């Protein structure tokens, strides 16, 4: 018989061996059913590899933020009469003067003083503490002294989107388009809560597309949502903060690239500016008090832009000529306030797509976080005054301007794209086309350069919810005739964009698109039900399964067939999912 000490050692060894075998069996068993990414949470591994927990690291950005609450009455309740006029940039009749912009919201000087104090303290105390005391170097948890900074983070590039609930469905369509274009960078889909995380979607469908769900630790996420009452618009900054990428291409869930956008990361323009933005359609309506609050100065003696209003007034004064008013003739009273030196650019900004470096623009993102935390009651209203698209969209360019960090907003405005209704003969806008920033930067006169092409489309109306398409008759006239709604995008894309979007939509939604026995599409295309159909795997779609299937059989499949049969000849060799 072995002595007690040796028996103890042998027993311990046996227990360890059994435990090791059990671990191997469990990992093997789970691995049969799910990919490795679902067994090991990559985001947690990424955090743990840095030697600290996610809540501690991310929460430091929010710790003490309540100390900088301006504590004024909600600006959204302080409109004097009406919200700001929604004026497009080409409008040459309405004057967005300083006086007009100051008249929209009742903003007492005492409130301005509180806003100025809290804004200044956030920059001088909170941001300085993060950067100087805590050594924050990028907008995220990883720092240069971690081994992963050099090996994984520095120079990394990827696409970030915000999903959850019905937005995961829209985002999937964009992700499939990104891959159809051959874009190579990985994709993160931010999920704003555990209740919106869907296992099969996140752990099987997305990894097959080189994408993954980013679900931050529940205690951190629920803590900041509760403390600051965060909602949909505000999640974008949390998605940026928790992203594993240093360089981000952000896409809204309805922002469809037309072409492969990877080249923009490589461009000299991006390397120089590290922040690229696109203009919206609307004239800027920011309250002039924002400049006092943020410490910016608008120079009345130097006008930097001659817009449509200026040119119209000059023409009227000069009896039909286009003679321009000299600099000395412009003032805050007779010209658009936001065409003077130091003001935020006019037009406003479309924040549904942007490129940004989280390290070079750390201060921009820190200030942007502040604007969004106190956005709904204060800064959204201050920056937009109730005009079109009020939300987070102006906070990025505002923060970059205040912090003096470089950016480039594409020099050619968006184009409303759509079709002419055969019944009413009216133009129906269905999407927004946005131009190549690199080409506009090179152009001597980008605003009037007709050779510039779109590189992405914002499919703002309709959004690709099945009930929206059917109930609003977006695809067919009342007599049953089919429509094409994106023809203006074809030349820039180099293919039939209507067909591309709808092919992705149908193969993802419609089980009746596939033969029951083979799982192959009934029209002979190269999709496969096992890999392309997601109708059973998203809660949003499962909630409307009968409506969706009826719509597939009665509307969607016939519309797809129409698009395939009517593809213009010049694009016939560029069809996605050709019949095999």
Which helices and strands appear, and what pairs or packs with what?
Blueprint (H helix, E strand, L loop, with lengths): L3 H30 L2 H4 L2 H7 L5 H6 L38 H5 L6 H25 L13 H7 L3 E6 L3 H15 L6 E4 L8 H7 L5 E4 L3 H11 L6 H7 L5 E5 L3 E3 L4 H5 L1 H6 L1 E5 L9 H6 L4 E5 L4 H10 L22 E2 L7 E9 L4 H12 L1 H10 L10 H9 L4 E2 L5 E6 L6 E9 L1 H6 L11 E5 L7 H6 L18 H4 L3 H13 L19 H4 L6 H4 L2 H21 L15
Parallel strand pairs: 1-2, 1-4, 2-3, 6-10
Antiparallel strand pairs: 4-9, 5-13, 6-9, 7-8, 11-12, 12-13
Q: In short, what is this structure?
A:
With about 575 residues, this protein is an alpha/beta fold. The protein is built from 25 helices and 13 strands.
Description:
This protein has 580 residues and is α/β, with parallel strands linked by helices. It has a domain at 462-580. The protein is built from 25 helices and 13 strands. Strands 3-2-1-4-9-6-10 form a 7-stranded mixed sheet, with helices on both faces. The chain is globular.
Mean pLDDT figure: 89
Pick out the low-confidence regions.
Answer: 21-56
Q: Structural class, from secondary structure content?
A: alpha/beta
What radius of gyration results from the CA coordinates? 27 Å
User: Percent helix among the residues?
Assistant: 40-55%
Largest sheet: spatial strand order:
3-2-1-4-9-6-10
Instruction: Quickly count the helices.
Output: 25
Counting DSSP E segments of at least 2 residues, the number of strands comes to: 13
- How far is the first residue's CA from the last residue's CA? 74 Å
How would a textbook summarize the main sheet? 7 strands, mixed
Shape: globular
**Fraction in beta strands:** 5-15%
């Amino acid at each position: 018989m072995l002595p007690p000490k040796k028996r103890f050692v042998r027993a311990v060894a046996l227990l360890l061996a059994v435990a090791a075998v059990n671990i191997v069996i469990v990992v093997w068993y789970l691995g049969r059913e799910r990919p490795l990414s679902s067994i090991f949470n990559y985001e947690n591994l990424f955090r743990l590899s840095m030697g600290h927990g996610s809540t501690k690291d991310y929460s430091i950005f929010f710790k003490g933020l309540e100390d900088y609450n301006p504590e004024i009455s909600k600006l959204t309740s302080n409109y004097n009469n009406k919200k700001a006029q929604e004026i497009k940039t080409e409008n040459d009749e309405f004057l967005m003067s300083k006086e007009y912009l100051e008249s929209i919201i009742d903003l007492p000087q005492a409130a301005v003083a509180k806003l100025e104090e809290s804004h200044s303290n956030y920059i001088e105390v909170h941001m300085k503490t993060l950067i100087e005391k805590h050594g924050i170097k990028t907008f995220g948890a990883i720092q240069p002294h971690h081994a992963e900074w050099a090996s994984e983070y520095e120079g990394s590039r990827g696409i970030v989107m915000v999903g959850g609930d019905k937005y995961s469905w829209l985002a999937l369509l964009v992700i499939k388009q990104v891959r159809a274009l051959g874009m190579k960078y990985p994709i993160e889909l931010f999920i704003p809560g555990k209740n919106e995380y869907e296992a099969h979607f996140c752990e099987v469908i997305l990894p097959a597309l080189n994408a993954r769900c980013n679900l931050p630790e529940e205690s951190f996420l629920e803590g900041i949502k509760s403390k600051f009452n965060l909602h949909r618009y505000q999640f974008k900054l949390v998605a940026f903060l928790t992203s594993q990428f240093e360089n981000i291409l952000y896409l809204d869930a309805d922002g469809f690239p037309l072409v492969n956008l990877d080249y923009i990361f490589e461009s000299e323009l991006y390397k120089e500016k590290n922040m690229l933005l696109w203009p919206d359609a609307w004239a800027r309506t920011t309250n002039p008090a924002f400049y006092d609050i943020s410490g910016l100065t608008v120079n009345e003696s130097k006008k930097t832009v001659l817009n449509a209003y200026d040119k119209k007034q000059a023409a009227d004064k000069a009896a039909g000529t286009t003679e321009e008013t000299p600099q000395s003739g412009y003032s805050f009273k007779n010209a658009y306030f936001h065409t003077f030196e130091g003001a935020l650019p006019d037009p406003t900004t479309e924040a549904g797509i942007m490129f940004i470096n989280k390290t070079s623009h750390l201060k921009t993102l820190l200030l942007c976080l502040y604007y969004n935390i106190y956005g709904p009651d204060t800064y959204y209203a201050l920056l937009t005054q109730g005009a079109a698209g009020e939300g987070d969209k102006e906070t990025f360019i505002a923060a970059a301007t205040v912090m003096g960090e470089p950016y480039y907003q594409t020099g050619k405005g968006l184009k409303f794209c759509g079709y002419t209704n055969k019944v009413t003969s009216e133009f129906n806008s269905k999407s927004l086309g946005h131009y190549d920033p690199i080409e506009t930067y090179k152009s001597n006169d980008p605003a009037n350069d007709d050779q510039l092409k779109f590189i992405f489309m914002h499919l703002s109306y309709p959004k690709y919810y099945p009930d929206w398409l059917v109930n609003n008759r977006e695809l067919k006239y009342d007599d049953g005739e089919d429509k094409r709604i994106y023809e203006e995008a074809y030349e820039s894309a180099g293919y039939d964009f209507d067909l591309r979007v709808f092919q992705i939509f149908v193969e993802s939604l419609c089980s009746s698109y596939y033969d029951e026995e083979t799982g192959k599409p009934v029209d002979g295309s190269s999709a496969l039900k096992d890999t392309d159909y997601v109708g059973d795997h998203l809660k949003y779609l499962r909630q409307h399964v009968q409506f969706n299937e009826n719509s597939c059989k009665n509307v969607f499949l016939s519309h797809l067939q129409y698009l395939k049969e009517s593809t213009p000849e010049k694009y016939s060799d560029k069809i996605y999912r050709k019949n095999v």
